[in-house]
């Protein structure tokens, strides 16, 4: 069974870790906005209007 020495594993620079977190969060927010807009358009096309 192979073992990994701790000196061989290189960690990412500290500024890349929050960058990944923010990019994933931003991607989820944008995708949620797209889905909500598509649902709103579909409801409007089906005749569901607010007034």
Give a description of the structure:
With 51 residues, this protein is mainly α. It has one domain. It contains one helix and no strands. It has one helix at 16-45. The longest helix has 30 residues, at 16-45. The chain is rod-shaped, with a radius of gyration of 22 Å. The model has no long low-confidence stretch (mean pLDDT 84).
Task: Describe the structure using short key phrases.
51 residues, mainly alpha, 1 helix
List the SSEs and their pairings.
Layout: H1 16-45
In a few lines, what is going on in this structure?
The protein is an all-alpha fold.
**What is the typical, i.e. mean, pLDDT?**
84
What is the helix/strand order? H
Reported for the largest beta sheet, the result is:
none
Rough shape? rod-shaped
- What is the helix content? 55-70%
* Whole-number count of domains: 1
């Amino acid at each position: 069974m192979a073992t990994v020495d701790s000196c061989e594993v290189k960690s990412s620079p500290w500024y890349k870790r929050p960058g990944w977190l923010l990019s994933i969060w931003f991607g989820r927010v944008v995708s949620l906005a797209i889905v909500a807009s598509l649902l709103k358009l579909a409801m409007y096309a089906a005749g569901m209007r607010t007034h």
